[in-house]
Every structure is written in structure tokens, then in C-alpha cells.
Design brief:
By secondary structure, the chain is an alpha/beta fold. The protein contains nine helices and nine strands.
Length: 269
């Protein structure tokens, strides 16, 4: 069956509308159950579902992503984390529902304001970091960008290091990849498993870098399987299960579950 097979789409709608299926509607505070159009958002998803044939990668996901916030997506493999990032990046279109990014109903129109870091570092091993960034900066004509040296310094790398990226450690490659997406000074930063294949010290350094971005109006959405690493920088932790938003908790709750339970009670779902 094709993606838009009428029978597939109709079967999906019936399953979603069944009483036992429920509806997954989450809005980030003040009330996770009640979106507030008056609050500023860099991105909004409204009942977004994504079908691949008969498989539903996302099921009726609704989220408001506000400026200056860090959202961490958790979930098992196949939960829909990467699919959600790709939809926000404008690389996939939802099958059902609507998405708005910086006021645009088609995220790819606002792509210059979006930085997307995928699993693959998207770097040329035979070039230095500075040469890589000089090349990628040409992909943003007419948009003020950081210089390669500025981007590398932001991620703690020496722009004068005359070494090919292919000779870098995994931690240095991840930092260079982050510098690549920072070139255009994105307002929505999407990071897919930024801590993957890193040693403990490199991962901690990456966390320290990301925590420094929280002082701006930039929205960060990242996926990870390493909850303990992401908790200190998360404003909100969103857990996906089988394509649905299973829960939303504050970053404080993730880092201090016992204190949160005692002080705040159960989070609204």
C-alpha cells in the first residue's frame, strides 16, 4: 500500500477514534492539557500523525515548543523520536494534523532558522573542521552566519587545529557536527542522539555546551537514550511510546524524582 492509500488512512482513523485508543494531547505549561495560543511558540504540533504504509510512527501528537526551552525526547527504538525531529525539520510531512514552525505551516520554508543534527555527522573526513564549516556556510546565502572560527569556539574546539576530521575522536566529531548546525545561528535546534558513541567525559562536555544555550531564546529539542545525561539541561522530558506522548515531566522531576513527588505530586498528563 502507498502512504496515502485511502483504505490505510481510513483504517488508521478508525483505530485512532476508537474509545480505547484515546487522544494524546499535551501542551507545555502552564497546563499540559490546554494549549494557550497567547503564549509564544517557536513550533506547534496539533494532532500530528505520521504513517509509513500501515505503520503509524506518530499518533496524534500535540506539543507547543517555546523559546528558551530545552525539550528532551525519550523512548524505545521505534517510539517516534527521530520521526518527530524530521517533521519539525521539514524533512517529512505529517500524514494527518498540522505543524507550524515560526508561523509557517510548511517548516521547510523556515529551514534557515532551523538547525538539524542527525545521527550521521555530515562532515567530510578529508577536510579540516574549519574547511568543512567554510563549505557549509555557503549553503546559507543572504543569512548572517557565524564564521567557522566563531562556531568552532562555541563548541570548545580550536579553529587553528590543522587536523583532518577523519582523525578526530568521536567526541570531537560530534562537536564539529554541532558547530556545523550552529553556523546559521538557528532559533530551533534539533539534535538526534547527540551523545551517541561518546565516552563519558565527552558526553559531559557536550551537556555543558548545550546548557550554555539555555540563556537565549533558542528552542532545543533532542533525543537520547541517556536520561541521566539529559536531565540537568532539560526543561521538560517528553516520553514517547508507540508514537504517542506517554508523559511529560519537568526537568527538575527527572533530576530529582523523589523531591518532585513530595513537593509537586504527580505531573499532569
Amino acid at each position: 500500500m502507498t502512504l496515502h492509500d485511502p483504505k490505510t488512512t481510513e483504517d488508521f482513523r478508525k483505530r485512532q477514534n476508537a474509545p480505547e485508543a484515546g487522544r494524546s494531547t499535551h501542551s507545555i505549561p502552564p497546563d499540559p492539557a490546554r494549549p494557550d495560543p497567547a503564549r509564544p511558540q517557536n513550533a506547534r504540533l496539533d494532532q500530528v500523525s505520521k504513517l509509513f504504509g500501515t505503520f503509524a510512527a506518530l499518533r496524534q501528537v500535540s506539543l507547543d515548543l517555546e523559546p528558551g526551552r530545552c525539550y528532551v525526547l525519550l523512548g524505545e527504538n521505534g517510539a517516534g523520536k527521530s520521526t518527530l525531529l524530521r517533521i519539525l525539520a521539514g524533512l517529512l510531512r505529517p500524514t494527518h494534523g498540522t505543524i507550524t514552525v515560526f508561523g509557517e505551516s510548511q517548516p521547510h520554508i523556515a529551514r534557515a532558522r532551523i538547525g538539524y543534527m542527525s545521527h550521521a555527522p555530515m562532515l567530510y573526513d578529508e577536510l579540516t573542521a574549519e574547511e568543512n564549516l567554510r563549505y557549509f556556510s555557503r549553503l546559507y546565502p543572504g543569512r548572517p552566519c557565524l564564521t567557522p572560527a566563531e562556531a568552532l569556539r562555541q563548541v570548545g574546539l580550536d579553529p587553528n587545529l590543522n587536523r583532518l576530521v577523519g582523525q578526530y575522536s568521536q567526541g570531537m566529531r560530534q562537536r564539529t557536527s554541532l558547530a556545523r548546525v550552529l553556523l546559521s545561528v538557528p532559533e530551533l535546534l534539533l539534535l538526534d542522539e547527540p551523545f551517541s558513541n561518546m565516552d563519558v567525559e565527552s558526553a559531559r562536555q557536550m551537556v555543558a555546551l548545550l546548557s550554555g544555550f539555555g540563556q537565549s531564546d533558542r528552542t532545543i529539542v533532542l533525543t537520547t537514550h541517556q536520561r541521566e545525561l539529559a536531565a540537568p539541561i532539560a526543561d521538560f522530558i517528553i516520553t514517547l511510546h508507540a508514537g504517542r506522548v506517554a508523559s511529560i515531566t519537568s526537568g527538575f522531576a527527572a533530576a530529582n524524582p523523589d523531591r518532585y513527588a513530595a513537593d509537586k505530586g504527580s505531573p499532569t498528563q
